[in-house]
Design goal:
This protein is 21% helix and 26% strand. By secondary structure, it is of the alpha+beta class.
């Protein structure tokens, strides 16, 4: 799976969805906008429904629930993770990233543009709150 780097500061949900669907950021953004989903809408990173809608539209199946993160060993081979989770004015916010395990090797695909490497294995620094399993 390829990392898709977000082209907007708030585009992590679109970028993560694009990576799962095999789309470029620009293509995913255009398709998301056509569905009324915009990176600037705070619901994209404070509610799971927009990302779930994008993935449904693009043929990616996900678990219907968010599963609390327990350990890197127990996470499924492909999952959306909520990291940098926080409350602001009573509303939850997070940064979307992907966890992928290929040939027994786990990695986090982080779309943040400013990172030196968007493929991360610094698991001690990444603090997931919960994840959504990708089922296809």
């Amino acid at each position: 799976m390829e990392v898709v780097v977000q082209e907007e500061v708030t585009g992590c949900g679109i970028a993560a969805s694009a990576a799962l669907a095999g789309l470029s950021y620009a293509e995913a953004k255009g398709r998301a906008n056509a569905l009324g989903i915009y990176a600037s809408d705070t619901s994209l990173w404070s509610d799971t429904e927009y990302v779930r809608k994008l993935l449904r539209e693009w043929g990616v199946s996900v678990s219907p629930k968010e599963t609390p993160f327990e350990s890197w060993e127990r996470i499924p081979d492909k999952a959306l993770l909520a990291i940098k989770w926080r409350m602001e004015h009573g509303k939850p916010f997070w940064h979307w990233v992907l966890f992928v395990r290929e040939a027994g090797q786990g990695m986090v695909l982080d779309s943040k543009k400013a990172l030196r490497s968007n493929i991360r294995q610094d698991f001690g620094r990444i603090k997931p709150k919960w994840y959504i399993e990708i089922t296809n």
